[in-house]
Amino acid sequence: SSQIASFSHQPHQPPSTPASKEVWKKGGRMFSILLAVHLALLACTLVSSGAFDKIAVHDYDVFFLLTVMMLIVIIWIIFYVAGTSRCAGAILCKDSHAGPIWLRGGLILFGIFSLVMDVFKIGYYSSFYSCLSAIKIIYPIVQAIFVVVQTYFLWISAKDCVHVHLNVTRCGLMLTLTTNLAVWMSAVTDESVHKAHSKLKKNVTEEIFRWLMKAGMRSSSADECNCDSQICQIFKNGYFWLYPFNIEYSLFASAMVYVMWKNVGRFIDHHSHHIHRLTFFVGIVLGLILLVSGLGVLILYEVQVNSSTETSKKSQALTMYYTFNIVCLGLMSLVCIGGSVIYRFDKRDMDRHKNPTRTLDVALLMGAALGQYAISYYSIVAIVASTPRDAVSALNLTYALLMIAQHTFQNIFIIEGLHRQPPKEDHKHDSHQKDLYGLTFVNINAVSLRMPDNGGTLTTSAASGTEAIHPSDLVQSLAAPKKMNWRRKALREISMFLLLSNIILWIMPAFGARPQFDNDTELNFYGDSMWPAIVDICLPFGIFYRMHAVASLLEVYI
To answer: Mean per-residue pLDDT for 374-379?
Structure first.
């Protein structure tokens, strides 16, 4: 009788790679890191210097540097796609954990809005091109090309483990990472200055505002030109509203590029992948309720705060905002604690293999949470030290405390899931079927499957003896439906609820609901200059944290 093919999974064996193939691995990485550090410091110096009129650095100087960096990155990406990736033996393996579909989908979504922002910028600056430097119009055009080229590059190459042109690839990836961070810094600075100007215009007259601009606050060179037409105002307001999407796009791209940089020259064993079936009910229902309620709270908050100058309307809007967030954060904290308790009953082993994607996920979760931690602690100090205290202050204090607790518990829940082995499905079969199914996982040296000449039955020969098995029984056993146990179902319900909750908590500050600027407690305690600066620096990290938490939940549980 002839032997049939083995059912056991043979792991991928990486090709033999002598150490001499990449002797200078540490040196190549160090050189690319030094390149990135110097470029990042140069960009940071120009961006921060361009924020003040008294310093002889203008916004078009910053745009010139960013334009040059983006053009170099575009040239390198074309070289990589057309040359490096097509070399023989360039990509011997791929990192299945890098660039999951939802992360690349989010990158495309933010990239589309970034393109719309660039179109609005081009339309705005073209309205009075005669009194502006040409770089102001060239910059959004180059940025649009950069977004398209980089998005295509990350979509097709995010999983690559490159093994040729190692040092050039490392330097190119670090240059791409630095360029995205520089664009992010510039966007955050422009948005912060714009919001500061808008808030200042509401509180002072036009004459005082112009005097403050001359006194040292930054003003864009476009402010010196007349933007009187309605279409010009639409372009101006439109691209400032789209800045949060461009900020998130730069952070998403930076994270994906960093993983690619870590995977340069890396060999990976291929493991089996588990296909999850989306079966949710409780988690998605509760999450959708919070999502819809949050959208309603956002609309009412924006209407009451921006359209009314009455103190009572503002207080009602803040009360409504804090109440919703307290309920949402409280529920998220409880379910995260519940998920951590469920892990105590989980018998899966911890995954201790080296994984750059997981390391980056953990670092980003912990690092981005520091932004919201900082805002919360500053708020707690201001509320406790200030007098008198009213109902809004009490809600603000509860909101700050719950924000700290929710970030902590959610990080524990997600990080513990990232370090778990892929779940093993439970099978409720009889002992005969279990023995059959186990044949696919036992050592092939201990078990062999043989087909008699008449094709009637299969015979399993093992150390324990022999047993006659019909082929149809084996096929039915292997094709039997896999049922999730209660722990797996509970973790999926929790993850779906957290996913939708994080989405609404990202949408609210990203689209203008920022009570830190509307609550007078912190402004009066820290002053009109220190507190807005704290929020402007820390809040983008909080917004990015929500989106990264969504991506991590999708990767681990869904």
So the answer is: 93
pTM, rounded to two decimals: 0.62
The pLDDT score that the predictor gives to residue 51 is: 65
CA distance 65 to 111: 21
12 pLDDT higher than 50: no
Residue 350 is given by DSSP the state B
Distance between CA atoms of residues 260 and 254, nearest Å:
10
Helix/strand/coil (H/E/C) assignment for every residue in 62-131: HHHHHHHHHHHHHHHHHHHHHCHHHCCCCEEEECCCCCCHHHHHHHHHHHHHHHHHHHHHHHHHHCCHHH
3-class SS at 425?
A: coil
Token pair for residue 325? Answer: 């967030």
- What single-letter DSSP state applies at residue 420? B
Q: Tell me if 153 sits within 8 A of 162, measured CB to CB.
A: no
Amino acid found at 488: R
Structure tokens at 186: 């510039």
Alpha-carbon gap, residue 448 to 504, rounded angstroms: 55
Neighbouring C-beta atoms of residue 83, cutoff 10 Å: 13
Which residues, listed in sequence order, are joined to residue 450 by a DSSP beta bridge? 3, 459
Please state, as a whole number, how many other Cβ atoms lie within 10 Å of the Cβ of residue 352. Answer: 8
- Give the pLDDT score at 478: 42
Contact 93, 14 (CB under 8 A): yes
| One-character DSSP codes across 127-186 | TTGGGS-THHHHHHHHHHHHHHHHHHHHHHHTTEEE-SSHHHHHHHHHHHHHHHHHHHHH
Please say whether the beta carbons of 523 and 556 come within 8 A.
Answer: no
CA distance 145 to 399: 42
CA dihedral 157, 162, 167, 169 (to 10 degrees): -10
